[in-house]
Amino acid sequence: MITTKKYMLKFTTNNFQEPISYELVKRFNIVPNIMQAKVNESGGGLILDLRGEATDIEDAKVYMEGLGVLVKELEKHVDRDESRCIHCGACVSVCPAKAFVVNRRTWEVEFKSDLYIACESCLTACSPRAMKMELW
Amino acid sequence: MFTAEEVLDLVEDKGIDAAFEEVDVVTTGTFGAMCSSGAFLNFGHSEPPIRMAEIHLNDVQAYGGLAAVDTYIGATQASRSRPTEYGGAHVIEDLVAGKPIHLEASSPGSDCYPRKEIDTYVSLETVNEAYIYNPRNSYQNYAAASNSSDKTLFTYMGKLLPKNRNITFSSAGQLSPLLNDPHCRTIGVGTHIFLGGGEGYVAWQGTQFNTSPAEKNGVPTGSARNLALIGDMRGMSTEYLRALNIHNYSISLAVGVGIPIPILDKEMMRACSIRDEDIVAPVLDYSVGSSRRPVLAHISYEQFRSGTVELEGKSVRTSSLSSYKKARDIALELKKWIEDKEFLLTEPVRSMPVSSKPKPLQISTKEELE
User: Fold this and answer.
1) Do A87 and B326 touch (CB under 8 A)?
2) Per-window interface: B 29-48 vs A, CB < 8 A
3) Could you point out which of A31, B122, B294, B323 has its C-alpha 20 to 30 Å from the C-alpha of B91?
4) Are B325 and A87 in contact (CB < 8 Å)?
5) pTM above 0.80, yes or no
6) In the predicted model, what is the mean pLDDT of residues A65-72?
């Protein structure tokens, strides 16, 4: 079954030169879609979508973890605190991925976590502090 | 009984005259950041008593210039230890939530008030009076914001992306109290209102009350009238009184206000049938750090609320900063209170000013003003 999941990969200085995305494509038949990449003195990280057979994604995780890469599924690190959200819509126009959609019947702001790209733009737009994220 | 939104279909179906025969009251609502807000508290006297001169509530300074144990806590006052995280609005929200609040106060001491320091906890239950008094709330229309500069700006109108890549606006539009009674024919001092989930009253005209903005379709096209509001914190709810952290600007308080409008005559029926498409606001360029910002366009709330508008030939995404959903909830809640006979309408005891225009602050010498 083909699925798409968001992951954060954390690299150390020992493994950050590994051509991970090439191997994902070549060996595991996965389509990686990189949304964020950074390199710093302690290594670096990637935020990306992995699309492929669920079993291939699992195998790829084993491969990456074997290299010492920390593999975290992202959805659990991105959350909207529903008790804080006032459904104003401040997040809507600052989100490049259009992950916030106003329902024009209920006027609630719906958060589409599948569209989310972890750019964190909403964090500084959300004055009731409903958007919570712990990434890097 | 109709909300200002529900009544639109009725007026469209039957016209103003027939709708007037059917409608007694239209309820309105708004829920957004209203920085000019705060609360009066009276702590009661300790033994031995203290005249509190320096007061902190959860590390947020409250006013110490009133009588011994009275204070006013302003919504935007930042805490000493976490100035961007916690402030007066959070103290107000925490009080309404029933949470214990750390009270620290000091005093030089006097013969009648010998105590010099106090460190204790208070809550909404332990204090004597606790009432919201907001000098400027429920603006009648408000200018929208954009940013033509090359960098992102953080303003009281929210996060403004560079090169006019977004527009923010803040009004309940067709649901907003003062847009449904644009010349304050029924709203005046003493009007009984929904405030923060509880009951309140219109206390006075709001500060910077402005009758001068140009009108279109019978309503002002910019920030015009507003109200000073008062209400008992007991009975209020954090659903309708919510602390905000406006990034790189200030702490603020989102306040829910609902005002019932009696449909006295056909003119009031017409006023309450105002639609988002008829209400226009200017879009101001916030990259200009002046109180006289250039107007980029005039755009209707129907367009703002559609999610994208045309600005200088480009399609620009919009964000509402006030909650239309909560505005609707407030109008519905107030309608239910009135239907259940839990809430009575009052006649104002004093009208709002017919003509008023705020003055700018001139930098003057003492001699110039003598």
Assistant:
1) yes
2) 31-33
3) B323
4) yes
5) yes
6) 93
